[in-house]
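Hi R.,

As promised, here are both runs. First protein below:
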Amino acid sequence: MDTGRIEALALRASLAAPPARVDGVRAIAGMGLDGDVHADPLSPRQLLLAGTDAYDAFALPPHALRENLLVDLDTSRLASGTVLRIGETVLLRLMFQCEACGHLDGHRPGLSMRIGTRRGMLARVLRGGRIRPGDRVSSAGPPLPAWSDDWRERIVHVLDAMPPASVITYKRLAQLAGVASSYCRAFPGVIARMGPFYAGRAVPTQSNTALPRWDGYGLFGHAADDAIEERLFSAEVVPWSGWTS
């Protein structure tokens, strides 16, 4: 059952580069989109889907939301954990809604406040392949575990996933939780308020602790991803169930 279609595609070669429209992209399992600055095996924000309805509602110029995949869906109603099939091959795991950042105010003052959850949905690539404009977007199989839109809850999620007797650097914690490195300044206070169970689990990069540093392996599946995507790829396309209530 089709739920939508890809309207346009874009890549950014660097953080300083504007989105560039392309006729097709190659999605790489566990990595993201080939040639895009956000391709990263340890990031929950490998690509961004935005809806044409947001562009229409706010009269935005092309690429204002900096999306990779423009879809004819209301992305604010997409649920974390939903697996989308793009075309016949690609599988995407929806992670969480993209926060509306201040650059949007450059298009229109106050836009970052008014757009809310309609900025777009972030995703990871479960199964790779080619994506082209016109490809259908459909729901594939049962949902996977959801991630919170609240970055503080994602910090807890990452810390809970750490192996025993290990630490994680603030920089890696930010990467795995999908927040900017500038958030590292807030981590000591945020983690202190979580209670003694989390004390000492995250450390500055220059820490001289003797405990091994966790690199994030296993957080997004890795070895388990093969079994997950194989199950989903072989499943029948099911009626759409990815909307939030």
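And here is the second one, sequence first, then its structure tokens:
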Amino acid sequence: MPRPPARSTTTAPRLSLRAPRGATLVAEPRLLDGDHREGERYERADLDGGELAGITLQECVLEGVSLNDTDLRGARFIECAFQDLFAPVFRAPRSSWRETSLRSTRWGSAELYDSTLDGVHLDGGKLDYVNLRAARLTDVLVSGCIIGELDLTGVRATRLALTDCTIGTLTLDGAQLRDTDLRTSSFRGIQGIDGLRGVTVDEYQLQLLAPFLAESMGLRVEG
């Protein structure tokens, strides 16, 4: 009789996302730094180069919005739903994201260092470089994304999962990871191999990691 598959002991992200209801369409949003907007919907809006530091969006919906080089430093996003966001340069360091979903995102470089993400789902999309240095991540799911470089230097993460992602370089120097699941995702290179403590991988990934692990331990492998 075949043995049942082993049960994973890795705790998955706990997400309870829901789409904002009854958001009011704002045809030409005029946003200012420090604004607090609630229950609004922006579609195909051009917010490029805006000065929106410290803005709060709560239960808002953004679809097809362009945010290239927009200053979102210290912004807060609470229970929002974003789709088809576009920004060759996305600037939101020290921002806060809670119970928010992002789908089909297209970012060139994303500056999210020192940010806090709690209950966030990033689903699909193409991102060239994501800078999450020193960020705090809790209950974060990244699924179906193509990411050129994912920089998690100094990150503190609990219940983080990267699912069905294709990632060029994953940087983990100084990362502190708990219940972090990398299974089903692929990587061309990993920097900061010591940061893998607390990470769950599958058997195939372990084989791919073998050269990096050997190098970090100073092993010489000869046939």
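A quick note on the second one: The chain has one helix and 17 strands. Let me know what you think.

Best,
J.
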